Amino acid sequence: MLVSQEVIKAYQVVKSGGVLLYPTDTIYGLGCDAMNESGIERIFQIKRRDFRKRFIILLDTAEKLTLYLEQVPAIAWDLLEQTVRPTTFIYPSAKNLPSNLLAEDGSIAIRIVDKHEFCRRLISMLGHPLVSTSANISGQLEPITFDQISEEIKNAVDYIVPPLHFVEDLRPSTIIRLIDDYNFEIIRE
C-alpha cells in the first residue's frame, strides 16, 4: 500500500481519538493526536506508565515551535541546524497543549521529523503535533524490530501502520534539555 494511503488511514484514526502503532524517525512508536487528552490517557494506560513521566510530541517543521512554546531559547535554532541524527529537545515553557502532556515544571519534549516522510505528512494533515512514545510497556526493553513489539501492545492500539513503512536502523533519539537562551545539557546521546 502506498505511504499516502497509510497516512490517510492513520489520520482518520488519530483524528477520531484513536491510538496508533506507527513508524517514527527513531523507534516504533505509540501515538495519538497531541490535542486529544483522552487519547493521551489511553497511551498512559496501554504502557502502564507513571503519569508523572510525560511523552514527547512530534512536529513536521521547526517553524511550528512558536505555536507550542512561550519562548524558543535562542540556542535552540543553532542546535536544530547542527544536529545530524534525530534529536528530542526539552523546552522550558509550553503553551497551547493539554496539561497531561506537560511535565510538572511546564516543560515539553519536542522532536522535529521534517525528514521522515510518513510522520511529516501525518502531522501536516492533522494540523498539530503527534504524541510519540516507544511501543513497549513501561520498564520493558524498547523494541528494535517490529517482531519485538509485544502482542499486548499490538492488541491495544486502534491501528498498526504496516511494518514495511518502518525504518530498519532503529535507535532512540538524542535528548537535549534547553535550560535558557544560551545553556543546555545532553540527557541522552
Topology (elements, then pairings):
Elements: H1 3-15, E1 20-22, E2 29-31, H2 37-47, E3 56-59, H3 65-68, H4 74-82, E4 87-91, E5 108-112, H5 117-126, E6 130-134, H6 151-156, E7 159-160, E8 174-178, E9 184-188
Parallel strand pairs: 1-7, 3-5, 4-8
Antiparallel strand pairs: 1-2, 2-6, 3-6, 4-5, 8-9
What would your notes on this structure say?
The chain is α/β, with parallel strands linked by helices. Helices cover 28% and strands 20% of the residues. It has a single domain, classed as DHBP synthase (Alpha-Beta Complex), CATH 3.90.870. The chain has a 9-stranded mixed beta sheet with strand order 7-1-2-6-3-5-4-8-9, sandwiched between helices. Helix 1 crosses helix 5. The mean pLDDT is 90. It is globular, with a radius of gyration of 15 Å. The N and C termini lie far apart (35 Å). It is built from 6 helices and 9 strands, in the order H-E-E-H-E-H-H-E-E-H-E-H-E-E-E.
Characteristics:
189 residues, DHBP synthase, 9-stranded mixed β-sheet, 6 helices, globular
Runs in which pLDDT lies below 50 for 5 or more consecutive residues are none
Coarse morphology: globular
CATH superfamily: DHBP synthase
Rg on CA atoms, Å: 15 Å
Mean pLDDT: 90
Which band does the percent of strand residues land in? 15-25%
* N/C terminus separation: 35 Å
Overall number of strands: 9
Strand order of the largest sheet: 7-1-2-6-3-5-4-8-9
